[in-house]
Design a protein that fits this description.
Blueprint (H helix, E strand, L loop, with lengths): L2 H6 L5 H11 L8 H14 L10 H8 L12 H15 L3 H5 L2 H11 L2 H9 L25 H11 L11 H6 L14 H8 L19 E11 L7 E6 L7 E5 L14 E5 L5 E3 L2 E3 L2 E2 L1 E3 L8 E3 L11 E4 L17 H5 L3 E3 L5 E4 L6 E6 L2 E2 L9 E2 L1
Antiparallel strand pairs: 1-2, 1-4, 1-10, 2-3, 4-7, 5-6, 8-9, 8-15, 10-13, 11-12, 12-13, 13-14
Helix pairs in contact: 2-5, 2-8, 3-5, 4-7, 5-7
């Protein structure tokens, strides 16, 4: 079945909305043939009561728990069709009702606020008015499946693993339940040795070299979606675009109590991309958000490290004097590379992010080709 014939089977005004949006942005029909097939399939489903009805919201909620978009990893006409079909249902729900389907609620709110969707929806008069959802006061979702004691212990340990910034952590920290900060005594060779080692991080660093900051894969990321973790009050679940063809990465970070969700939405940040993926209360996290913690501790505040103006998702972030080095594909958890280097991360008087070699106090600023990365307000902060 063709895209057009599937859309024409939709009822009005959803049909008109999908046609208007897809005519304005052709990429919404699908970037590849497999995407197009999945998009058509979901458009067909969106026009049936078997998928979209008040009685079926729980089933749809289970489908959407791990999804940002319904058919692919980017906005498509399928999302517009599903949004249009859901609109009269969600608009009629009381808070207690939409709180019971948090994934549906999060998804619906995300799609209805997409600029291209909002613009065309408003042009259709009162058919798709913005539905105001009280997401901030949503209660904690009930856990559907009780984890084993071993997994529950590991998950709780992960939340408390960082004494500086409560973000996601490599798998070994899940087992040990805390982040160990080692003294970077292994760097005692001095700045000469740093440069020498940094230049050969690509080849034998993974197995033979001492921990160096250039081994850490830092990239510019862009938060394209964020919601609270369904089973952990202190965690956010973010979809972060880091310029990969495979689409955004799911990232879990413990920032709920420190940065309001409004200040997280649509933000550009620095992501640590080569940590081993870690399960955080049932959601796998594939990167870590680099944050600055006030010199006074977490009580003094936490901020996202910001890349320079004009940065794009996927831009390489590196340490000055280590430009030629290539990060490891994945940090070896047993070598504690990040934990060894992290105590030297700080912000300077200029608020610029940097790594200071503890052996010789040489400063290596954290930067991209467009400039240095900064903390908005913190001087002398710790980074993690």
């Amino acid at each position: 079945m063709s895209f057009e014939s599937s859309v024409l089977k939709l009822g009005s005004p959803t049909k008109e909305l999908v046609l208007a949006v897809s005519h304005k942005e052709s990429a919404l029909i699908g970037r590849e043939d497999l995407d197009k097939q999945e998009i058509i399939s979901w458009i067909d489903k969106s026009g049936t009561d078997a998928i979209v009805s008040k009685e079926k919201l729980k089933e749809l909620d289970a489908t959407l728990i791990t999804k940002t978009y319904i058919a692919t990893n980017y906005l498509t006409a399928a999302d517009v069709a599903l949004y249009g079909a859901l609109h009269p249902i969600v608009a009629g729900l009381q808070p207690t009702e939409y709180y019971s389907v948090p994934a549906v609620t999060r998804y619906f709110d995300h799609i209805q606020t997409q600029p291209i969707v909002r613009q065309e929806a408003d042009s259709l008069g009162d058919s798709f008015k913005l539905v105001l959802l009280d997401l901030e006061n949503a209660p904690k979702s009930e856990r559907k499946v009780e984890p084993s004691k071993k997994k529950e212990k590991a998950s709780k340990a992960t939340e408390a693993s960082s004494s500086r910034v409560p973000t996601d952590a490599p798998a070994p920290q899940l087992d040990k339940g805390k982040r160990k900060e080692k003294k970077a005594a292994t760097n005692a060779e001095g700045s000469k040795e740093d440069s020498k080692k940094g230049g050969k991080a690509t080849a034998s660093a993974e197995d033979d070299s001492e921990p160096l900051p250039s081994m850490i894969d830092l990239r510019v990321g862009h938060i394209i979606d964020i919601s609270k973790h369904p089973d952990a009050d202190s965690l956010y679940v973010e979809q972060i675009d880091i310029g990969e063809e495979s689409g955004p990465r799911t990232v879990v970070s413990g920032l709920v109590n420190y940065i309001p969700i409004e200040q997280m939405r649509d933000k550009y940040l620095v992501a640590v991309c080569n940590l081993k993926p870690a399960n955080m209360r049932g959601v796998k996290s594939f990167a870590m958000v680099l944050c600055a913690t006030s010199g006074e501790g977490k009580e003094g505040g936490i901020e996202l490290i910001q890349p320079p103006a004009g940065s794009k998702p996927g831009d390489r972030v590196y340490f000055e004097d280590f430009e030629a080095a290539t990060p490891l594909s994945q940090l070896n958890p047993k070598k504690k590379i990040f934990e060894t280097i992290q105590p030297g991360f700080t912000t300077l008087d200029s608020k610029e992010a940097a790594w200071i070699n503890p052996a010789n106090q040489k400063i290596h600023k954290i930067r991209t080709s467009k400039g240095t990365c900064i903390a908005p307000t913190f001087v002398g902060a710790t980074l993690s």
